[in-house]
Amino acid sequence: MTRNQWDSFNKTNMTPRVEITKEASEVIDQLRERHGELMFHQSGGCCDGSSPMCLEKGDLLLNENDVWLGTVNGCEFFMSKDQFEYWKHTHLMVDIIKGRGSSFSLEIPLGLRFVIKSRMFKANEFEDLQPVKYGEQFID
């Protein structure tokens, strides 16, 4: 990534690729108290396997096949490169609903589950769209 691209991460007027609702943020705060630092990975499976998974930071080893989309309530948010190719034109909103999912996500024992609500980016949002980082930038 060039210096100009890194500098653009510091711009405050960038269009975020991923955001979170107030309700989902409150659940993240509860989970953080219990588990410490957290991260999200948008699973690419089917059915419940396609929900965003909230994990303890470091529980999922990242590699060159992962893409960082942004940070929501202090949690880095990733998905696979292949999935990103399908979703790169899409704004993601992390939300929370009642119901028990069947993933390894930390909210499941609370009788809740994170879900993604999405929409296509508007044409003007692409001009200042937050750049992504690739997994190899997170590998020690």
Could you explain the architecture of this structure?
With 140 residues, this protein is an alpha/beta fold. The protein has a single domain (16-127), classed as Hypothetical Protein Aq_1857, Chain: A (Sandwich), CATH 2.60.300. The chain has 3 helices and 8 strands; from the N terminus they run H-E-H-E-E-E-E-H-E-E-E. The chain has a 5-stranded mixed beta sheet. A 3-stranded mixed beta sheet has the order 1-6-7. The two termini are 17 Å apart.
Described by strand count, sense and barrel closure, the largest sheet is:
5 strands, mixed
Which CATH class? Mainly Beta
Q: Number of domains in the coordinates?
A: 1
Based on CA inertia axes, which overall geometry fits?
globular
What are the secondary-structure elements, in order, as H or E? HEHEEEEHEEE
Q: Structural class, please?
A: alpha/beta
**Lateral arrangement of strands in the main beta sheet:** 3-2-5-4-8
State the low-pLDDT regions, or none.
1-10
Q: What distance separates the N and C termini?
A: 17 Å
- Count all strands and give the number: 8
CA gyration radius, whole angstroms: 15 Å
The CATH architecture can be given as: Sandwich
CATH fold type: Hypothetical Protein Aq_1857, Chain: A
Q: Per DSSP, what share of the residues sits in E-state strands of 2 or more residues?
A: 25-35%
Estimate the helix proportion, in percent.
10-25%
The quaternary organization reads as single chain
Total of DSSP H or I helical runs spanning 4+ residues: 3
Q: What is the assigned CATH homologous superfamily?
A: HesB-like domain
Averaged pLDDT: 87
